[in-house]
Design goal:
Blueprint lengths: L2 H8 L26 E2 L10 E9 L2 E2 L4 E6 L9 E4 L5 E7 L2 E9 L2 E9 L4 E7 L1 E2 L1 E6 L6 E5 L5 E4 L3 E7 L2 E9 L7 E7 L4 E3 L4 E2 L5 E3 L21 E5 L4 E4 L10 E4 L5 E9 L3 E2 L5 E2 L3 E6 L16 E9 L1 E8 L7 E9 L5 E6 H4 L11 E7 L6 E12 L3 H4 L3
Length: 409
Amino acid sequence: MNMSDFLYLFGVRKRVLPSFFGLAAFALIGCSSSTETAGGGPSGTEAGNAITAQIMVAGKPAAYARVKLTESESLDASKTEFIEADKNGNVSFENVSNGSYTLEAKLSGKALQKEVLVESGDVDLGKGSLEEMVSISGSVSGDEDGVVMVRGMDHSAKVKKGKFTMDSLPAGPLSLVFIPNKNKSDTSCTYMKVVAGEKSTSSTFADESRALLLDDFQDSNYQNRFMPAQSYDGGWWYFNFADSNVTPKFITDDDYHHFTLETEQDGNIVAHVAATFGEAYQDSSGNTMWPWATIGVELGKSNKDLCNDISSVDTVAFRAKGVGAIVFGLIDESQGNGGQRIAQYEFTLSEKWERTLVPLKDILDPEYSYTCVNQLVWGFKPTTKEKTVDIWLDDVELIGGKRLSIWKR
């Protein structure tokens, strides 16, 4: 591999994007010691862990607010624990076993939700403020009847001829699952974020059998949809390049380098971005500055302290077309500054859409594993005299493996 090839493949500098949807944060302030208690916890075990919080509304304690605690991936309402806050808004769930939960509070048309991770110890959430509730409406694939449920919360709505409306929801991330009435019909799911006091329309539902479909871009945003909704605010797409000698095309802003999301004639939405490479040059220190460009997506958050274990995944699949060559790779942020590309697979783009299957076991560097993968990346490599790479990308998915094992902390 020559130096030019090396920098096409490894010249990526990660750029973690901030959230574009400003959602109410949970202020982690001190909590009063006076609490109502509930024994057993959602799991029914005697683990000894306690979750405490003080619920506030308009700067005052939310006296006697209704509070729920549900396992964050559950669709079973029977696993929801209900208690009532005391006159000072304090609550405590006791004997909660280790795991991930959603705490939800409600009072007089206002609500909040908060993810809680219990790891062999008590969790004090501090103060959390109720905000205006949210309503959503939408449609599922086809005109089927059934029910839409919120994963990790005790909320549901009937679906009639493919349409549904759901009220009284807390602002924040929601993972929706459609369960059709027809026997043996596949469930489907979607992920969305909702803002306090607003009415929202649900994103496109995808077959639950493709729960590891990271993105098909039908929701027209830059965050992958099928990570667990309650886990963390991450999963962003980004486009980055050498500013000094690469000219980008089809980007929508200068701050975040968002690529274009184009709608095809059949209504399908795809990602589209291109870049033209200039010449390498030497900077004032004598270092050679090689051109490079990369489109990528965080699996969760690009943080070396947060690992995504995809060792159970057989293949990464995606559809692509365009001009030039692409080097697909996986980044492990725990491997040092800028991350380490632990696997790579080069392919030449075709003028027509082609589905590419990348078998992970065949491309992994033997020195590493797939137990801490933070990003999927597509590095640009020009193959024409114009030195331009032009890529359309769609339907990025992980084949094999289990969704919960991947995002397990």
